[in-house]
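Hey,

The postdoc asked me to send both predictions to you directly instead of through the lab channel. I've kept everything plain text so nothing gets mangled by the mail client. Protein one:
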Amino acid sequence: PSPTAVGEGGVAAATGVRATDAGLSASGLRSALQAVLPEYLVPSAVVVLDALPLTPHGKVDRQALPAPESAHVGQADAYVAPRTASETLLAGIWAAVLHREQVSVDATFFDLGGHSLLATQVIARVRETFQVELPLRTLFDPETLTIAGLAAHIDAMRWVAQGNQAQASTNEEDWEAGEL
C-alpha cells in the first residue's frame, strides 16, 4: 500500500488499503492512525470506498471522489462553549478561518479540518488580535492544539509580558530616583 495523491482541500487517497478487510471502521482507522502519527497528520475525515474512482488513464479521479459527510467531519463529541475572553476571541478566529458557525474549545484545530495553510491564517489573526508574537509551530504543539490550550498559552505569555513591562518601568523609576 502506498499513498497516491494529496490534492486540493487536503484530500488524500491511499491505494491498497482495505480498512474493511482489516476489520476497521472509519473511526477505528482514525484511532489507529492517532496512535502512531502526530495529531496534525491524522486525517480529519475518512471515507471508506470499495475502490478509488479512476480516469481513463488509470489515475485517481479526484472530481469523482465523494465529499465527506459534513455532519461528521471534525465534529467534537460535545460542544464546549468558551469560558474566558481569550477563548471567545480564539473561537471567533477559528470559526472564521475554518468556515464554521461555532467551535468547541476542546476540539483540535486539525480535527476541525485545519491544515498548515489555514494555521498560518490563524496565527496571523492571533498576532493581530492579542498583540503577541506566536510562532506557527504553536498550533502543532499537543498542549496548544485546542482553543482551551492555546488560550491558556496566550494568557500566560501576556501575563509574563505585563510583568516584564511593570518591572521595566519600576527599574526606570528607580534609576531616575538614583536607587539603582
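Protein two:
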Amino acid sequence: MVGKGPVIVPDELLDEARALYERAAAGETIVGHETRRLRRDGTQVDVSLSLAPLRGPDGDVRGIVGVLEDISERKRHEEELRRRNEELSALHETAVRLLAQEDARSVLETVVARGAALVGASSAMLYEVSEDGRTLTGTIAIGDAERFRGTTAERGSSLSGRVLETGRAEAVEEYSTWPGRIPAYEGVPLGPAAAVPIRVGSRIVGVLGVARDEPRPFDPGDLALLERFAGLASLVLERARIPERLAASEQRLRLAVEIAGVSVSETDFARGVTTLDELGASTSASTARCRARRCGSGSTPRTGSG
C-alpha cells in the first residue's frame, strides 16, 4: 500500500476487499472506491481506495499497487450538508402544510419522524405538557415507541420530566439501564436516548424524546438538530391550539355579554353588520332586564361591538 493510513479491514468488509483485489489482479483499475478501514485503536475511518495492476515486461499482472485516502473530514462535511438540506426541506414542508391548514397530528408525525431519522434514532416520542405543567403525556410516537403512546411522566422524573424541569436538552448513554427511566420501559432494550424541550415563547409546551438501537451516544450536534425540529413542532402545536383559544375567548365574551346586558355584533365587510344569531338569547335577556329597570317604551338596550 502507498500512503499513510489505516490498513486493517473490518471483518464485515473482508468479502468486499477480497473481490476488489481479485478485480485488480485480473487487470482492472479501480479508482476512488469509498469504504471503511480500522485504525490501530479499533475506531473506523472512511477511506477512498484505488487499486491498479502492476504488469511485467510480458504484460502479465505481477502485483497490485493500492492507495488509501482518508476522506472522513469530507464525509463529515457532506453529512452536515445533507442534514442541513433535510432540515430546510422539513421547515419548508411544515410551513406549506400549516398554511394549507392540514391536520396538526399528521404534520407533527412528519416533523417527529424526519427529526428522528436525521439523528439516526429508531424511535421517538413527542410528549405534551398538561395545563398545570406537572405531567407529560406521549401523544405522537414513531417506530418502537408506538406501543408506548399515552405513557405519562411527572415533572422532574424520567429523562423527559427532567427536561421539563430544567428546560435543557439532556442525553443518556444507555436508557434501558438508566435508573431514572420511565417504569413502562422496564425491560425494553433501548440504547442511547435524548430529549429536548419544545417551547412556545418562554413556556415549555412539550418534550421531544428519541432513542437509538445502536450503541452510539447522542452528541451536541444531534441535540442542536433535535432542538431545531422541536422548534418546528412548537409551530404546529401552537397552530393546533388556536381553535381552542378562540372557543375559550368566545365563552368569555358570552359571559361578559350576559353580565353587562349588551348585544354584540360582528362586522362582515361583504354583507354589512349583522348581530350574531348565537347571542340572540343574550340580547333578549338584556332587553328583559332593561324593561325590568323601567327603561321606558321608547328606550332600547345599549349596543356595543365586540
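Summary for protein two, as requested: The mean pLDDT is 80.

Thanks,
C.
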